[in-house]
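Worked example

This section walks through a single chain of length 103. The input is the sequence exactly as stored; nothing has been trimmed or padded.
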Amino acid sequence: MEFVDKILKCVDCGNEFVFTAGEQLFFHDKQFRNDPKRCKLCKAKRASGGSAVRAETRTTCSECGHETTVPFKPTQGRPVLCRECFQRKRIVPAAAQPRPATL
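Given that input, the structure is written out below as tokens.
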């Protein structure tokens, strides 16, 4: 089977990039069914974590009443804790657990 360079369009940045015959041969040998969707730069950015920005939501802590931000959208009816109250709640149950008996 003979491969020829193809020009593809990146789904992230929209720029065109070359899918070389050598890359196509590699894809064929590995039995990959789909052509690449991203250029090398966007693929590298995606692999390194990219610039994904987490959405911060302003809310009020259910324990102390202070205004805080959380990295998720709170669900109605579920308590939301600020960092300090969350840490305090995590430490208390661990300290309350009985220790295993030593022989």
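What to look for: The chain has three helices and four strands.
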